[in-house]
Amino acid sequence: MATNDSPQFNRQLERFQPSAINAVFSLTNRLKAEGKDIIDLSIGEPDFNTPEHVKQEAIAAIRDNNTKYTPSDGTKALKLAVIEKFKRDNGLSYTLNQIAIDSGVKPLLFHLMKSLLDEGSEVIIPTPCWTSYPGMVMLAGAEPVFVRCPQEKGFKLQAEDLAAAITPKTRMVMLNSPGNPTGAAYSAEEMKPLTDVLLRHPHVWILADDIYEHIVFDDFKHVNPAALEPELLNRTITLNGVSKAYCMTGWRIGYAAGPEPVMRALLKVLSQGAGCPSSISQAAAVAALQGPQEYLKDWARIYQQRRDYLVSRLDAIPGIECNIPEGAFYLYPSCAGLVGKHTPDGTEISNSVDFVTYLLEAALVAVVPGSAFEYDPNFRLSYAASLEELEKACDRIDAAVLALT
Ligand SMILES: Cc1ncc(COP(=O)(O)O)c(C=O)c1O
User: Fold this and answer.
1) 398: number of Cβ within 10 Å
2) Residue identifier of the C-alpha nearest atom 1 of ligand 1
């Protein structure tokens, strides 16, 4: 029985730790509060502002008293805008009953997991992976099955590794392209072997997290698994949102498209556990999806410049090894070459957490250790920061690494 001395909690919470990002976040904030000039490259959100026409639509929504509850799975206006988006950007056709809106992709994913997973279900998660996937799977009582995607293979899931990981208990596979934390994105040639494997396993749901779809470089063409392999359409749920593409992280709108029975199950979960997304943010998201889209390419070009700069600077530092990401705004270099070295005060660098702590304390640059993403020894830098900041950060990292012996 629970008492004040031994309060009871959900036992799934014992299965995982809070995200390692939180530890970096706390130390970064403490140093900032002490007045230290920290360059913060740990953050996963765009540094641009929400476009003006989107803001105006939100202001109009408030003025028009569009401020009440909406249906649990979103307004018809936003669902129609989402249908139009999938047609325009992905060549995918959906009906209203195949769309759901939630307060961001993060809660949407969680609610989908609650809808699709049972205790003991296995969920294949290619690693490195976004920090939240494993915790969400465990909160749903299911089992994450990690499949390592080596840096030498561009951090991309290989068909034979996917095939080997699928069991009768596999309920779901997570695909995230371009991905967090690596920025790796699958071309059609790279995705095809994966969809071929998935065709052979009709008991598996495919969750495609396309949130970084619009941030791609060098004319890369984003590929969605259901668009590439229409036979997978009845098993694929595609997630996307306005956070990263339209610089609307704080507005909290994500959307999903998938088979009608999945959306019915999801609606059940949403109606009891979510309420509805903000009516004002939904109105703003309609403007984002239906308004001009050209500026997305301008932003992608700016990210690409920063990527190129960061890769060229970091790759030149002995002990650090970069891949060239196809998209998103992250770099995930290996620091394997620095493990075993010592800081000027004699501390040994034994893993990415030691290296990241050293960078933060000695170089005043905040990045995230690979342990947060189930793949080490690497670290994640976000280049959602100005070129000037990136230049300063690289100078500092360069000097800090040079000081290691
Ligand atoms: C891969 C991935 N999916 C989903 C999200 C969550 O996005 P949202 O702001 O829509 O909840 C993030 C945010 O960092 C992400 O990196």
Assistant:
1) 16
2) 180
* pLDDT at position 43: 86
Q: How far apart are alpha carbons 214 and 210 in whole angstroms?
A: 9
Cβ count near 93 (within 10 Å): 11
Pocket test for ligand 1, best of 43, 180, 211 (most atoms within 8 A of CB): 211
Lowest mean pLDDT among 14-18, 27-31, 193-197: 14-18
The pTM assigned to this predicted structure is: 0.96
Do the Cβ atoms of 291 and 54 come closer than 8 Å? yes
The residue assigned the tokens 């009768």 is: 168
Q: Probe ligand 1: pick from 132, 238, 252, max atoms within 8 Å of CB?
A: 132
Percent of all residues in the chain with a pLDDT value above 70, rounded to a whole number? 99
Domains (ranges, CATH) in the chain? 11-49+295-402 (3.90.1150.10), 68-290 (3.40.640.10)
Res 16: pLDDT = 80
Residue type for position 173: V
Of 243, 251, 380, the residue with max ligand 1 atoms within 8 A of its CB, to mutate for a pocket test, comes to 243
Residue nearest to atom 14 of ligand 1 (CA): 44
Q: Which residues pair with 381 in a beta bridge?
A: 331
Question: CB of 281 closer than 6 A to ligand 1?
Answer: no
- CA atoms of 274 and 267, how far apart (whole Å): 9
Q: Is the CB of 175 under 6 A from ligand 1?
A: no
Read off the pLDDT of residues 82-105 as tens digits, 9 standing for 90 and up.
Answer: 999 999 999 999 999 999 999 999
